[in-house]
Amino acid sequence: MLKNKKRIATGIFSVFIAFVFIQSLFFKFSDSEETQNIFGTLDKWAADEFGYEGLFLPPGIFNAYVIGSAELIASFLLLIGLCFGKRVISFIGAFLAFDIITGAITFHVFTPLGIEVNNDGGTLFALACGVWFSSIIIMTINLDAIIRKLEMTPKEA
Questions:
Q1: pTM for this structure?
Q2: Which helix (H) or strand (E) is 124 found in, with range?
Q3: pLDDT tens string 60-83
Q4: Which of the ends of the chain has fewer CB neighbours closer than 10 A, N or C?
């Protein structure tokens, strides 16, 4: 019974994360005005504060295409883990999502980007927090699968 509840919870939170990430890909990959504003604000902040102009704009390492690609990979891993019952893959997808979204939340809170972006009432930030908590839940649920995998000898794996 508990195993079934864990699978359902993993499924709900995986689909939520994948939905949030995948629906944002259009904006990131089409270089929309919203994306230009967000990444432009971050790039200006990095240039003004640290002298790293171009960090958040192509070909910078944190541009929208790179972040969007990482979100797509995390979504893919979460959905593959869910569809095939591969708890280790679900954990890895959630771990990647957690890393990505921790960066997003940090930039919302500690840069001029702010909680409210483009007069959205904090929607992007709220979704980021939802993804963050969802990824923690998925990792917690599937932690035992990772531990078992790590404890295996190379011959058993």
A1: 0.92
A2: helix 123-151
A3: 999 999 999 999 999 999 999 999
A4: N
